[in-house]
Amino acid sequence: MSADFFPGSPGIDVNAAVQAAADLLAAIGVSSDSETAARTPARMVAGLAEMLSCPAWEFTTFPNREGQHELVLARDVPFTSLCAHHLLPFSGVAHVGVLPGQRIAGLSKLARTVEAFAARMQVQEELGQQIASFLEERLECRGVGVILAAEHLCMTRRGVRAQGSDTVTIACRGDLRDDPVARAEFLHLAAPQTRRAA
Ligand SMILES: Nc1nc2c(ncn2[C@@H]2O[C@H](COP(=O)(O)OP(=O)(O)OP(=O)(O)O)[C@@H](O)[C@H]2O)c(=O)[nH]1
Ligand SMILES: [Zn+2]
């Protein structure tokens, strides 16, 4: 298998990773003898590589010509990441709010920021903080707020098996952290009951 199989993951030693996956399966007593499972080690590596990489992109901004200094909020941005403790997926939605300064972000870049930081082994709290710090630094804006709501398979499908539970974390900067009115508006608009009817 060539390294071209893993676009965007130049750091992966494919042969070593596939051998390690095969060794892991053998060590836990899972046979990869059948035609069905013969390529499972390679698929395991490809799947992990895919989840730990994202396409290259540019953080595009525009001048804030009309003075949009109130909240801009991207809601229900889906994401999937890998739990740093168990290497199992955790997935859910992000709500990303910005109080713009001199420039406004291309809207898709809020979702791309979520996608880029999710494409790592993560702890949910740190994922939210990394997204907030990145946007605050890049946009030099008055405030950033990131709410993540996610199901951790390591918590719902194994271990304590708390099926149906999700975890919500909040990471705020600037006025979305310090101004109670701005923060309350952000939290209100991120809440499910404010969604448009489907
Ligand atoms: N704070 C935080 N904890 C997480 C996250 N993802 C997984 N964990 C927790 O990390 C902890 C790891 O605890 P350990 O006791 O070392 O692992 P474990 O024996 O598999 O624990 P159990 O999941 O309780 O079976 C667990 O409590 C997980 O629920 C996360 O994003 N944030
Ligand atoms: Zn976990």
Describe the model.
By secondary structure, the protein is α+β, with helices and mostly antiparallel strands. Helices cover 37% and strands 25% of the residues. The radius of gyration is 20 Å and the shape is elongated. Mean pLDDT is 92; it is low at 1-8. It binds guanosine-5'-triphosphate and zinc ion.
Q: What's the topology here?
A:
Layout (H helix, E strand, L loop, with lengths): L13 H14 L12 H12 L9 E3 L8 E12 L5 E11 L3 E3 L1 H12 L2 E2 L1 H16 L3 E10 H4 L10 E8 H4 L1 H11 L8
Parallel strand pairs: 2-5
Antiparallel strand pairs: 1-4, 2-3, 3-6, 6-7
Catalytic activity: GTP + H2O = 7,8-dihydroneopterin 3'-triphosphate + formate + H(+)
Pfam family, one: GTP_cyclohydroI
InterPro entries: GTP-CH-I_C/QueF, GTP_CycHdrlase_I, GTP_CycHdrlase_I_dom
**CATH homology-level superfamily of the largest domain:** GTP cyclohydrolase I, C-terminal domain/NADPH-dependent 7-cyano-7-deazaguanine reductase, N-terminal domain
**Class computed from helices, strands and strand pairing:** alpha+beta
* CA radius of gyration: 20 Å
Number of domains: 2
The global form is elongated
Ligand types: guanosine-5'-triphosphate, zinc ion
**Assigned CATH class of the largest domain:** Alpha Beta
Approximately what portion of the residues adopt beta-strand conformation? Answer: 15-25%
Arrangement of strands in the largest sheet: 5-2-3-6-7
